[in-house]
Specification:
single chain, mainly beta, 28-stranded antiparallel sheet, two-stranded antiparallel ribbon, globular
């Protein structure tokens, strides 16, 4: 167990106390708590202070009983935007908390959960916050298993939850009930490499409140009334997977033998009975089920490479694995994810087969373009059929063809990877979203680049104004030299550019020089986030081995 408490002083802002507590009560449990607060005096009369806290805890009470808590607390989005040291965290407007106890004995999984979700939709309006609470919640899930001696398989999904939702100009009861039961039965059939799986499921959901929409063109908001609503649906699906087609090429390329595998699949899905979709309150993905009649078709291409000799690949000197574009925001408040996902993989010492290229293409054809009348033209519609396909709300009018989803992964070795996700909308003739991530290690050099493009269709407002599409296009680049234990010079640079705003939103440079006895780290950071934050940061640390450090660049934020 250890406790670290300290404070920073900003000459124009005030004191900023922080606390970190870590404990390992047993071998199977831990508690991590961090708290950061700014007692802001304000700039030009505007105070942006607040508190952000993170609690991570886990314990294994019994062989099949596990408890987990992941709690985030944030007083206001403008506080995170103004004071977070990590760009990806500063621009994240969501706050998610969850705690659960799970019993995984046998074929049934029982969970007792509490979840809270917040979405701060404005940095200037503190009332523009969406709050969704699941407390308490009980979930029962049965894994897919054969039903006795019959050829049928069965699954079960059931839940009983207390829910509430509030946002500007709308709120439900402090606690309403939702009871959901979803049993399913399937018949898996195999014949000479062909796989056919028909499935039939029933769903019955009861809400103690329902929504009375304000109008047909207004945003999805109205009045929640205490009137029980019962949603019943019948779903039938058929999944067909033909045998995979493969070819082994005779000629070697780059000292390797190559194999190409093609895996097609077709899924037909039919849902009926959801006649009250506009009156269903929205809390999570259980509430967006709609009637549908659709076909999903997909094609997966895989290229495998196998070395024809037992010689190991030339790995060279390990570089710095901490610089990765597209990595998840770290909990230690450093600008790059510290992970060994690339560098910690050992060099191959014997002939191995590697999946070098994976390219998946997915698309849906909607036989019912109105989804049983649930689709409202002129605004973004979100259904189970769409979120299972892509995160982009592309439905603004009746349509038969969904965007084409492309997912490309390339990894020619343990030290490089390329990812490219693309959604192309044939109906509008444009790219809805494109995300490219590239990371490569060359000896002590580490480089990465990324681009995130988003084109979200607009929605008609309650006044009937023409929709305005939302566009987003950002570039990210990182370059590093050195390693964690290298003597002498090491350095890293990071840059984030918003092409729509035509400005650098975030940039940093960290340089270090290490001797046997000590080391010096200096860092420069630049933030330019809307009108809330435009600042330059200069930080340094002088560290003595096994003794301590002096400066304002924390150990968790140093790369070297």
């Amino acid at each position: 167990m250890d406790l670290h408490a300290g404070a920073e002083y900003f000459s124009r802002r005030g004191w900023a106390p922080d606390l970190e507590f870590r404990a390992r009560p047993t071998e199977s449990s831990f508690v991590d708590l961090t708290v950061f607060t700014v007692l802001d005096r304000g700039v030009n009369g505007v105070k942006q202070g607040g508190t952000e806290a993170h609690l991570n805890s886990e314990d294994q009470f019994a062989p099949h009983l596990r408890g987990v808590a992941n709690i985030d607390y944030l007083t206001s989005y403008v506080f995170r935007l103004a004071f977070s040291d990590v760009f990806t965290q500063a621009v994240n407007s969501e706050v998610k908390s969850a705690a659960f106890v799970s019993d995984t004995a046998g074929n049934l999984f029982l969970n007792a959960t509490t979840r809270r979700y917040q979405d701060f939709q404005s940095s200037t309006n503190p009332r523009a916050v969406v709050n969704i609470l699941h407390a308490p919640g009980f979930e029962l899930t049965g894994i897919d298993r054969q039903l006795g001696n019959l050829p049928f398989h069965g699954t079960l999904d059931a839940s009983a939850e207390g829910l509430s939702r509030s946002e500007q100009n709308f709120s439900t009861a402090p606690l309403l009930g939702r009871f959901d039961l979803n049993p399913a039965a399937s018949l898996p059939l195999l014949f000479k490499g062909w796989s056919l799986r028909p499935e039939l499921s029933l769903r019955d959901t009861v809400y103690t409140q329902q929504l009375v929409p304000s109008s047909s063109i207004a945003p999805d908001i109205g009045t929640a009334i205490s009137n029980t609503l019962n949603r019943k649906s019948l779903e039938g699906s058929i999944e067909l997977r033909p045998p995979a087609l493969d070819r082994i090429f005779d000629h070697e390329f780059l000292g390797r033998k190559w194999k190409h595998v093609v895996e097609p699949r077709i899924i037909y899905d039919y849902v009926t009975g959801v006649e009250n979709f506009p009156h269903i309150l929205r809390f999570d993905d259980r509430d967006i089920l709609s009637d549908t009649n659709e076909v999903e078709y997909a094609l997966v291409n895989r290229f495998y490479a196998k070395r024809t000799s037992s010689d190991s690949d030339e790995c060279g000197t390990q570089g710095m694995p901490a610089l990765l574009v597209g990595a998840a925001p770290p909990p230690t408040h450093i600008p790059w994810e510290r992970t060994g996902r690339i560098a910690e993989q050992p060099c191959p010492k014997q002939p191995t087969t590697r999946e070098v290229v994976t390219w998946e293409l997915i698309q849906k054809y909607f036989l019912d373009p109105t989804f049983g009348g649930s689709l409202v033209p002129g605004r973004r519609n979100v259904f189970t059929s769409t979120v299972d396909l892509t995160g982009i709300a592309f439905l603004t009018e009746p349509r038969h063809l969904s965007p084409l989803i492309s997912k490309l992964r390339v990894s020619t070795g343990p030290r490089n990877d390329l990812e490219w996700d693309l959604d192309y909308d044939f109906q509008f003739g444009r790219v809805n979203t494109s995300t490219v991530l590239f990371n490569h290690h060359i000896g002590l050099f580490t480089l990465g680049a990324g681009n995130a493009f988003l084109h979200v269709p607009g929605a008609i407002s309650s006044t009937g104004q023409a929709p305005k599409d939302i566009k987003f296009n950002q570039y990210r680049a990182v370059l590093g030299y050195g390693s964690l234990n290298k003597r002498g010079f090491s350095g890293a640079f990071d840059l984030g550019l918003d092409s729509r705003l035509d400005r650098v939103q975030y940039g940093s440079a960290q340089l270090a020089y290490n001797w046997d006895c000590c080391g010096v780290n200096v860092e420069y950071r630049r933030f330019s986030l809307a009108q809330v934050r435009k600042e330059n940061q200069f930080r340094f640390t002088f560290a003595l081995a096994n003794i301590g450090a002096f400066g304002n660049l924390r150990r968790g934020e140093r790369l070297f």
